[in-house]
Known about the structure:
It is built from 25 helices and 24 strands.
Amino acid sequence: MGYRHGELIYLAVASGSALLGILGSILGWWPGQTIPWFMIFTAVVASIQGFILGFIAAGMSVLILYLLRELTFMDALILVFSAVIAHSIGESLRAAHRRSRALAKGHRLVAEALQALTLIEHRDRLLKSLPERLASLGEGGHIGVWIPTGSGFRCLICIPPIPFEEVPDAGVMGRAMREGRPQYISDVRKEPSHIAAPGFKTLAELAMPLFERGEVVAVLNIERNKGFLAEEVDGLIRFAETVSLQLDRLADLEARRLITDLAIALQQSQTLQEAAENALALLVRTTQEQSNRKENLQRFALDAGVLWEARGAHMQALAYQGVTEPQLLQVLQAGLPYGQGKAWEVYRSGRPFYTSTYAYEPEGVPALQSLDWCTLVAHPIPTPDAKRSRFILVVGERTRRPWRRAEQELLSLFCRTLGVGFERLVEKTRHERVNRLVQDLLDAPSSGLYDRVLQEAIQLVPGSEAGSLMVLEEMHYHYKAVVGFDSEGLKSVTTDTDGMLHWYGLGKEHAEKGEPRIITIREQPIPEMSYQTAPAEVMDLAGRVREIQANLCLPISYRGEVLAYLNLDNLHDPDAFGEDSLRAARFFAAPLATILHEIRTHRLLKEAALTDALTGLPNRRAFDQILLEELKRASRYPTTFSLAIMDLKGFKTINDRLGHAAGDQALIRVARALNCELRSGDHLFRWGGDEFAAIILNSCKADARVAASRYVHAIESIRFGELDLSVSIGLAAYPEDGETPDELLNAADTRMYSAKISGVKVI
């Protein structure tokens, strides 16, 4: 062992005292005064080196004095006594000296940590650097950084290396983590929980927890073959506290960096899908990084991730990264049915889900569990005013990974920021799609426009999965578009204004203002309310009202008149609709009112052009259009139909004798009588003057004769005093009598004139 500067001075004094004593005795400088110099020599050695060397120094002094013939028994006792006293006094001085040295070393460690650790900007690099900085303290032992795994500790780094990578949490390190404070064991031989490392001779162990955001994220463990001074322990604890402060600083730094990167990515994204892809790129390793397993400076650097969007009964994958397994790709393409997978659980609860044992979790996705994925997180992405999180982030790793509190807080902040960005893009998409819808429908109205309006509403209003559009025609509301229900069964349903107001429930004033409302099965008897609009058996079977969990009803009002009611339904979740749904519905209401008003105006103009003003029946122009449509349908789907041309007999007499008003009334009564005999699906027209026409679907000539006979009886039942009416009818059948409009018309017209001349009612 080497000597420090102060010790060398004291030894020099001791040696000089002994030399002076010897020289003085030999040369006679101080006769009889030699013993004090040897006392000084003995005392100095004993105080510096301890009692044993002090006793040896006393023995040497006794021997020298004996040889110089100046020794007495009392002198020997004095020398031994001086060694004992000097040792007692020197022991406290030596202890104080050792403590001062240890304290100085502790201060130096903290100072070096403050200077060097602040230059490291990644937590793993920081933790891996600790053993090297403290390597001089592990005399005969080792220094390691251990990461909690839930059931034990994994060795992040150890100097020198030890023969195992994981240890259980039953040892000293486990106690340090559980209690959240350093654990010092001065003699591990007396510690039953000590876990010995093979090949190392250990006497003392110091385990110090390292904190990040108030959570133990690692344990700095030092083992060596001699004990620690109290000042050394204090210095190392301060060092560990400094490291913990630096971990907090790095967590803040990495959080700011990640959120800044996310904000930039969202600002640059033009679509929801692009934003989702950019967000996942900040969390998931690239394929090359996964194969190389090299150090990645991303905060999370996960294996895979998916961003789900809840749409009614399914979750659709908005974007995904890192997924390569064919069975998982099939799940992503098909979507998640309602209730399957942890994403739906998070959707319902609004709370994130973390697990490192996904393969054993209930309600997991079977395809994912079969691949033995371990770590999975499903986190809601909150959006303003929504009861439910419409978007769910799911990320994971194939291996087990503990999630630290700082990581959970950062992921929560990440999702909140992502939700704000998504809301901006949702609003942008909503504006673009509604504007495009309005422009397209105003430029080119089509027979399928009601369906398109309803489908767009289901897409744009959060929580919708089914719906219907009921439009006002002739003072009643009719089902014009249906999604998710039996459209054929609802086609014949009509509801008056009072029935719709009862279903709406907020009163006429709110309906005329176009105010949307939400009802749920928890609060309102939805089936019973719907029975006010149509028969119960129809609404139960065709309308599936007993399956509806929530309904959003939007009156489409234009200048105080409710033109239509838009009903949006969710068949699975009573809380599917929220304030965000109402906001989207309100945004949709004004453009939809404009569209429906234009459609109504267009329809009325079209009906006026195709309708006979007197009888209300379709006119000759409508006949030409419908005849062409039925010919196309019959050629595409091999069916038959018949054409009937009718010429009234006796009409001219009524018109001449009773006047034109009576003649008009006769035509009106004929139209009503024929309508009463008309089969569902058949078409009736006023051909012109006193002529009428009918298209009888799915009929051969024999079927057409039966229908024509009913028409004859209906017309002959009409009387004006003593005057009555009759009719001559000519029939033509497709394809027997022709396959073009001209061929069929010529055949029917010719037979009608033949019947008129011969006096036969029907030919």
